[in-house]
Automatic annotation (TrEMBL):
<feature type="transmembrane region" description="Helical">
    <location>
        <begin position="37"/>
        <end position="60"/>
    </location>
</feature>
<keyword id="KW-0547">Nucleotide-binding</keyword>
<keyword id="KW-1133">Transmembrane helix</keyword>
<dbReference type="Pfam" id="PF00069">
    <property type="entry name" value="Pkinase"/>
</dbReference>
<dbReference type="InterPro" id="IPR011009">
    <property type="entry name" value="Kinase-like_dom_sf"/>
</dbReference>
<dbReference type="InterPro" id="IPR008271">
    <property type="entry name" value="Ser/Thr_kinase_AS"/>
</dbReference>
<dbReference type="GO" id="GO:0004672">
    <property type="term" value="F:protein kinase activity"/>
</dbReference>
<keyword id="KW-0472">Membrane</keyword>
<keyword id="KW-0808">Transferase</keyword>
<keyword id="KW-0732">Signal</keyword>
<protein>
    <submittedName>
        <fullName>(rape) hypothetical protein</fullName>
    </submittedName>
</protein>
<dbReference type="GO" id="GO:0005524">
    <property type="term" value="F:ATP binding"/>
</dbReference>
<dbReference type="InterPro" id="IPR000719">
    <property type="entry name" value="Prot_kinase_dom"/>
</dbReference>
<dbReference type="GO" id="GO:0004674">
    <property type="term" value="F:protein serine/threonine kinase activity"/>
</dbReference>
<feature type="domain" description="Protein kinase">
    <location>
        <begin position="118"/>
        <end position="389"/>
    </location>
</feature>
<keyword id="KW-0067">ATP-binding</keyword>
<keyword id="KW-0812">Transmembrane</keyword>
């Protein structure tokens, strides 16, 4: 007898065996997914490795760049003239320009050999804080090295040193001294400057030559040059900078008698209280509001500029110190300057009768305005500059045409 197989049993096994049902599909999909995850993992870890290596490389590059900046390796500088100075590092972080790598740091030993071991024969001048030396860094030209190791408060010297290096690294102008670099070695600090062959205005006016080498026109050029340097500090620096120690010994002259402002140890941002770096020494050049309140404004420099203008006109020191009487400031001559008829008689004998009287009256009026006791009555240095330019011949940088 034929056995009847229920339809359900007869068909069910083949149906199950051939079925492309969900379990098989699921296996295929999972394998695919695993592969993708693996690829993604490999790709992302490779990317991570590359990124980490790149970061490490960048960090290493930055470290070596900073190291070079600290040690003053400057691509624009003579490779032999600049070497690392390990002892610079403790102070280097305090000086902005050093960390930014914009100013070369000289190795002390290099400056030592360039100045013949800081020999007496290389001394150009001697100050309270140290000496100024002539130095030969190469065969072609000479520079000057100020070595600060003299007496006085070492904290103040250190502050002034940092202040000067910091400002001079930022300030670049034809009428402001160029700093070529600096050095730090134990307690000794050195600053390297361009050579100013004609020395200071003070020595030209009050030294052995007694101003005989300075004609009226040259004096006007020096006044305009100083005013240009000051205008740059007051009007073109942001924030404005006040020099605070402008005097004839800080006005230097190069071989062409271009005047440049030097000594930025006391320079400060305008409108601050200048009490952090207190000024000592000669007060004859400084405005009373600064001496009394320590108020730093551009008008302090205008006053000091007026004192220099008086020195140029009268040939007198900012403060005369006769042994018998009290020291006398050149500003005490101001009332005599207002007397036009007598003005030509009180001038420096070296320039008497050598200028157009109209020009003399104008310069005297400018000087009188600059030394006004009330700061707000003093002109801005830019106004001073523009009233002096027409008095200076074209070939000396002014606008006066001599027919
Ligand atoms: N770059 C230079 N080139 C030539 N002579 C210079 C140079 N710098 C300074 N001098 C001379 O050295 C003198 C002293 O300058 P320095 O800036 O060293 O003074 P100082 O020691 O700071 O004294 P002070 O604080 O009284 O100004 C100047 O008056 C000038 O005669």
């Amino acid at each position: 007898t034929s056995q009847e197989i229920p339809i359900s049993q007869a068909y069910s096994p083949p149906v199950r065996a051939q079925s492309p049902g969900p379990p098989i599909v699921k296996v295929v999909l999972r394998q695919d997914l695993n592969k993708k995850i693996l690829i993604a993992l490999i790709a992302s870890s490779t990317l991570l490795c590359v990124t980490v290596m790149l970061l490490l490389y960048l960090l290493l590059w930055r470290y070596s760049y900073m190291k070079n900046s600290f040690t003053g390796i400057n691509p624009n500088h003579h490779p032999d003239s600049v070497r690392s100075s390990v002892s610079t590092k403790p102070i280097a972080h305090k000086i902005d320009s050093v960390t930014k790598g914009t100013i070369p740091v000289y190795e002390y030993q290099l400056l030592e050999s360039a100045t013949n071991k800081f020999s007496e024969s290389n001394v150009l001048s001697r100050g309270g804080r140290g000496c100024l030396y002539k130095a030969c860094l190469d065969e072609k030209s000479s520079v000057t090295v100020k070595r600060l190791d003299g007496g006085g408060d070492t904290d103040i010297i250190e502050k002034q040193f940092e202040n000067e290096v910091d400002w001079l690294a930022k300030i670049k102008h034809q009428n402001i001294i160029s700093m070529l670099g600096f050095s730090v070695y134990r307690q000794t600090r050195c600053i390297v400057y361009e050579m100013m062959q004609n020395g200071s205005l003070e020595s030209l006016l009050h030294g052995t030559s007694q101003g005989s080498g300075l004609t009226w026109q040259l004096r006007m050029k020096i006044a305009v040059d100083i005013a240009r340097g000051l205008e740059y500090l007051h009007e073109h620096c942001n924030p404005p900078v006040v020099h605070r120690d402008l005097k004839s010994s800080n006005i230097l002259l190069d071989s062409h008698f271009n005047a440049k402002i030097s000594d930025f140890g006391y320079a400060a941002v305008s409108m601050t209280q200048g009490k952090n770096l207190k000024l000592n020494g000669t007060l004859g050049n400084r405005a009373s509001e600064y001496i009394v309140d320590g108020k730093v404004t551009d008008k302090n420099d205008v006053y000091s500029f007026g004192v220099i203008l008086l020195e140029l006109l009268l040939g007198k020191k900012s403060v005369e110190k006769p042994s018998t009487t009290e020291p006398e400031s050149v500003v005490t001559w101001v009332p005599k300057l207002s007397d036009r008829a007598n003005l030509p008689n009180i001038l420096d004998p070296a320039i008497k009768g050598s200028m157009d009287l109209k020009h003399l009256y104008q310069v005297a009026a400018v000087a009188v305005l600059c030394v006004q006791p009330e700061p707000s009555y003093r002109p801005l240095i830019t106004d001073v500059l523009h009233s002096l330019i027409p008095l200076l011949p074209l070939e000396l940088g002014g606008s006066l045409r001599i027919l």
